[in-house]
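User
Please review the sequence:
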Amino acid sequence: MSTSYSVHSVGSYMQAMGSMVEAAATFHLNEQDIIPPDLRHSEDKQKKSEAKSNAPIKLAVVSNDRNEWDDIIDGFADISFTKLDALISNLEITLSTEDNATDTDVYDSIFSEVEKVAQEKGTMSAQELMNSIMNILCLNDNESEQQSLLFDMLGFDHFDLIGKLLQEKSLIVEQSSTKYSKSKKSEEPALAKLEKQVKYPHVFQTYAAGRTISFTGQKYSLPVGTTRQTYNTHEEIIIPYAERKFKKINEKFVKIADLDFFCQGTFKNYDTLNRMQSLVYPVAYNTNENMLVCAPTGAGKTDVALLTILHTIQQFALETEEQIDIDYDEFKIIYVAPLKALAAEIVEKFQQKLKWIGIQVRELTGDMQLTKAEIMETQVIVTTPEKWDVVTRKAGGDNELVSKVKLLIIDEVHLLHEDRGSVIETLVARTLRQVETSQSMIRILGLSATLPNYIDVADFLGVNRQIGMFYFDQYFRPCPLQQQLLGCRGKAGSKQARENIDKVSYEKLIEMMTHGHQVMVFVNSRKDTAKSSRTFISMAEKENEISYFECDNSDLLKRFSREMTNSRNKDMKELFLKGFGIHHAGMSRSDRNLTEKMFLNGAIRVLCCTATLAWGVNLPAAAVIVKGTQIYDSKKGGFTDMGISDVIQIFGRAGRPQFEKYGIGILCTSADRLDHYVSLLTQQHAIESKLASKIVDNLNAEISLGTVTNVDEGIEWLGYTYLNIRMKQTPFHYGLDWQQIKNDPLLFDVRKKMIVDAARKLHTLQMIVFDEVSMHFIPKDLGRIASDFYLLNESVEIFNQMLSPNATEADVLAMISMSTEFDSIKFREEEATELAKLLDTSVQCQIAGDVNSAQGKTNILLQAYISKVFINDSALASDSNYVAQNSVRIVRALFLVGVNRRWGKFAKVMLDICKSIEKRIWSFDHPLVQFDLPGPILNQIKQKNPSMQTLLDMDPSELGDLVHNRKFGSKLFKTLSLFPKIHIDAEAFPITENVVRISAKLTPDFTWDFRLHGNAQFFWVFVEESDKSQVLHFEKFILNKKKLTHEHEMDFLIPLSDPLPPQVVIKVISDSWIGSETAYAMSFQHLIRPHNQTLQTKLLNLKPLPTAALKNPLIESIYNFKYFNPMQTMVFHTLYHSNESCFVGSPTGSGKTVVAELAIWHAFSSFPGSKIVYIAPMKALVRERVTDWRKRITPVTGDKVVELTGDSIPDPKDVRDATIVITTPEKFDGISRNWQTRKFVQNVSLVIMDEIHLLASDRGPILEMIVSRMNYMAAQTGNPVRLLGMSTAVSNAYDMAGWLGCKNNGLYNFPSSVRPVPLKMYIDGFPDNLAFCPLMKTMNKPAFLAIKQHSPVKPTLIFVASRRQTRLTALDLIHLCGSEDSPRRFLHIDDEEELQYYLSQVSDETLRLALQFGIGLHHAGLVEKDREISHQLFQNGKIQILVATSTLAWGVNLPAHLVVIKGTQFFDAKIEAYRDMDLTDILQMMGRAGRPAYDTSGTAIVYCKENKKMFYKHFLNVGFPVESSLHKVLDDHLGAEISSGSISSKQEAVEFLKWTFLFRRAHHNPTYYGIEGDLSQSGVNTYLSELIDKTLQNLIESQCVIMRGDAEIESTPFLTISSYYYISHKTIRQLLKRIHDNAKFEDVLKWLSMAVEYNELPVRHGEEIMNVEMSSKSRYPFEQIFSDEQEALPAWDPHVKTFLLLQAYFSRVDLPIADYHQDTVSVLDQALRILQAYIDVASELGYLRTALQMIKAIQCLKQGYWFEDDPVTALPGMTLKRHPFVKSEQDNAAGKKESKHILTLNDIGKMGGAKLKHLATHKFSKSFDQEFEKKFIDTCQRLPVLHEFSLTLLPEHSLLKLRAKHYNKKHGREFSVYCDKFPKLQKELWFVIGSLGDELIMIKRVQPKQGGILESELIIPEDLALNEVASMKFILINDALDLSYDLTINQEL
């Protein structure tokens, strides 16, 4: 048999060498002249070069036959060294003979021609051109490709040269190699040494694949011992197994017993690590180095991953003797596996190994989604590359998850060269950039099969080659592998090829069977498993070889035969009897498990399976056979070659170390693919990057994420990719040449071109905005959506052309079918019949275009999938699943595109289709199909097709009748209650003529079932005009079980068209439930547009007025400027020379303070001795104004300034003496309520109200009442009160001015341009669909870039919504600084010692870190000192950036050049959701931009959601109209006026309302206030009258008012209490419902917590969990106290939080978070006032015990202890202890006296200094700290202990006169008492209580006077007889300390 060979085949070359070796044996050489050669290298090189040079010669090898080679060998018979020397001396002589081609130097002649070409072109040198040509000849085996490349390079003019190059290719390559090596040796001997291959310490590579051609580095050869045989049916290459190598002397296996606790627990079933793991262990477990581990399948790479995981866990573990304490929340480990099946296997393995230390391992893939809570509690997440890409590329994704990743493990890194490789590249690049920018430690571990260019991959992964790069060759396989590759003849896919593959596979199978091996045969499809088994059985029967397959163990057969009876799989039962088994993903889990068990036990000899078995299940066999390599790929829509990773994985299953010496892997493929698999399996091809083809999509993802914002960052991003590494190594592969590499070694220009080209494409597709001037990228919604939903840019291009707002379902399905994602779906003729059948049976929407096309097929398959039709053809079924899987993603994306384009109809269609695909139900099917109902019931419902509303209105019996099944009626009724439905109620409030605010209330009305509804349900809220499909507003509404019973409020502004639309429709559509849709139509027929008569005062071109115009040198000296600014000049005359009330509207920072001062000077001159009241909305503003005026005005004019707020209670004398009172609205409202009895209120001549536009806020009604009261008071007393209102510009200024009583010249409403420093304003929109935290995060980088652009060196203020955001923003800015050349660019402190001094003073960790980068923090959660340091450093220019909450804008005048308002939303606890900030807050923040003394202009940037952009653009310039909110809270304000006597009838109440702003706006904007119908004067009066009736009714319910007849109003004592203590009548109402005469301490605590004043206490997200924890540790758990059905409150209720905070305060425990400290202060702030009111209510009812219990509660509040704690131990320096004699709260409430030997405060207060010192040092020495001794003595000597009591009865005056005196001469400032724990200073106060039995008769509060004397008179009630008075008990109790005295009438103690 004679066979032809080709030298291009590796096997041919090997066999050809045999003859050469024989010939060489006959050489006669002179030994003296021989230099001993390196046999391994030089002989090999010589032989191989000869083989190459003779390449064109055809070989024929037959044993003992003579052929052409024999003649050639004869030519070498007389070879000698003499002849060789002669040849060398004549080397330069060229012989031109055709017979001997080797004598001609073809290379030189070619080179001379190339020199001419190079001269002609002039672009590169001859050598460079020759090098490029050589690369083409060496790199490509394909001649046509080579020809094409050569024509591209040389041009068609050099056709002859190209022909010669191709003809003499092998000779040129050979000679160039020789020349290259010679020139290297002769010319560069030193360099030759340097070029030796670097030896890396962890590369264990025995066999390098042959010699290397100089230019390319490619290797040609196969392992030693490889044979290649040719047969009729196939060609066979057998690569022998690698013999085990002996270990090195110093190599030891790592024993598990020698390892630490973690490793021993995890590897408890191991004795040692294997050889590979032992070598890797030191780096994997003891360092944080990035690693690449290349090792054969089965070498134990998974355990290497486990070692790195344990090392990461160890870093977050605290190991003690008893236990391990792991901080589970601080780290995440991500394991990226290529397949879902492999992910599942890894999860199972890791769960078992790590569960002992409590580590949670979960799978996150397309099949296994995780909730946020599950992600939070999982430490190891196993995912696929695509899934992790989706998670990390979403700006609104799991940023917290990504930021906690400490280890990223990428399995099968060699997938880089497959289509999915680009995903791995982007993941690694993103991670490496994150590490660099955030300066965080994320370790990367790459696991892979053996790779040829592992060094490149290591460089890409950021691995240190000397430490973390591990390469293990085939010798490290646990069981060596023999590889047999069979190339079967016949065209791929043809009948001949299939028959040959079957035959060859069978032959190999029988061969294995004869050796007694078990075999796994891997086939290409599920169907083929049984088919191949039957083929093998028939062949065996034909050859009488069936006995080889049968199981010889009869026991096993019997056992499994029994188990087999439970299986329903006929194929499995039939094949089992013949010794065959099948396994694929389509089988049931039990059948698969049984098959695995049978194969493991040897009951079946042959297992036919699909490739999923190799990945998902670890089931080894002696031999594996891959039967055919053509597999169907639905993604490509056809048959493709099996991937090398699949082959490696399958071969990894061959060999069981305990049974066989080696495993056998057999690959049967077609002849044309044989060399392809040989080269892959022997690593002949380097793996290349696939990123270049996907760069457009990946760049879009990075731009959308915000990591790439300009071209430079894009270039930097590409620098981290594998593409960048490979382009330098093999430029030709990527379309580059060596010249580019030479000129641009870092490929900067190449990368720039790639980025710019990709960006232009994205810009054209409207996915980004690419500014080619600045080279910046701005992401757009379309780009973000494409990134989030993984849309290809080609698909976006199609959609851009085809999208239409009026598209129908059919149009949409046609468009989806044309998507690029489905380009791979091909129409095949053999499928036409089934597709036609599907078209008839399952298609509901018309198919556009040709049915017999790829698009038509996609459309049909998608509709068939929705219709749940069974598809017979497995390839079609696979295609159908692929189409459906991708369609959901595409439709979701298109839905969001439609929503963002405001296309209502289109969005609805897209949402319906999306739900149809997800649920596999058409949107026009009946919604009940979604429930699991019996078929007959569903058929009945489908036939009658009643609407859901009809069904919901029916009762169970009616439903039973409907479905003809009465019993089922109740079940159907219950099912219907589970159907999600939302009720809508809405109101419209016109704001301006063109804008209306809609307030919608959504009320869920269904029963929650976790199985159906999960943790949350999503709904879309759309607002549309009824006659158009344009969406006016959209919002996503998330409903969870917690909020199911709550009403959800939504407020949104929508534009009004002209003319008005007939209706506006609000729709609420479920995101997942078909048919769940509610619509609410709002008619606009009766809508009255508001009348906002406005005026904008133009700034006149006046000459600036000098300060001399004041004509008062004293006042002039206050001002450090010479001229007033233009605005002040305009208002000067009105304010300084008249007494008119004024309204001045001008922007923040325009100089309104001076305007107020002008009015003050006028008041002082016109009304000497009168008082001025300045009202500011916030305590911080009050403090700022007090500080400023005390500093500037008081020293010059001598006018006293007094602060009157909740924090500051001045002495009444100070208030009397002060001329300027600065206060808050609430405080002045409280004081002025009783103006009739308060002289100083009547003495007010000027009231200045700053920020009066806050009238629209919740506190606005208070301002209304103050103005109304002042006007009313002025009318009553006849003394004029001037009102000055100051604000930003408003759009209804006339109403404001009219209400304030401004006359001719009193109205000034300046536009926002009137500023001393002009302001540039930018408003940037961000995606609407992001949640709050991700939205804030996406704003950080734009803010950073804005600082660099607008304020690179000047100060910048960044305002954020919460304290937490200040911290997160600062940390993100620090990370961004880290990527700059100068990370500390914002720090302007040169002296390191100075910086260290500031840092040492700071207590907050984040602030300490931020200050080092020039960033400060400012919020209420910081301690005062930290705030002050931030403030001072920023003010002095030491730090450039200050991140603050909005409170800073009001409280501190701290201007900056640039202000960034990062987000316009904040969390409102009242609605438990995020809502928009008031415009006033935003204007105030913007007002901080621009520093008058330093800047010529300021810049303000507002970041908001995209849908709010136009709103801010409009109203920030024009001003927002101010509306009243008095009508919402009229009860308390009207009650106060009734209580003071200002109102005593309904008519007076109506008259009083006429003074309010509400009265004016009710006429001008009636619809806003709900006035419909009659809009005349009388109609509005009727509305106001009804409003007063409703208010009075509320007050009557609270027992605060009594009606006398129809009109007379009389107040009760309870109303007086409510008004006096400034608490709501509703608080009084709830107390009166609950109060009784025997209250316990817990009752008082509960009543206090239930006060309406605590409704606003914020309960932040996640605090409910902390509340439950606090409750479990509290004395009174809220679950018990609030257990009544009517009073049962959830953990997230603010009253529950108040209750728990008070208990924590009494117990003096540490609070879980800093916010709780601030909340406790807020609670205590109100608590005393409320309890004082409660005492008065209890006294009014005569409840003595309850009043005493409440006084005890006040003592506990002021001291911060429980009722049973010993008050003595609360003194300074002492440890709080329980009182030995107070066992219950009744003991103390009853005033139980202590035993004589117990020390009391009264005893201590009477001791002298010496006794106290003795007491401190001796009695309390154990618990006493010496440094407190002085404080202790001082406090004890100031205790308000009393003596010299007298209680005298004066019958003639019906009075009791009380007198007592302080025992100690010392007392605190203003009689303050020791209340160390209470946040505010407390003054001494005593209660005098007189009781008769258990009834409280009289109570009075007494305060000491000068000299420490207590004097008071108690009026005896008229109905009390004198003898009863004499028998009364009197007690004097201190409200802060446990001091009480029993008093006796006419008796001195």
Q: What stands out?
A: Residues 327 and 369 are 25 Å apart (CA to CA). The chain has a mean pLDDT of 82. The first strand starts at residue 4 and ends at 5. The first helix runs from residue 10 to 24.
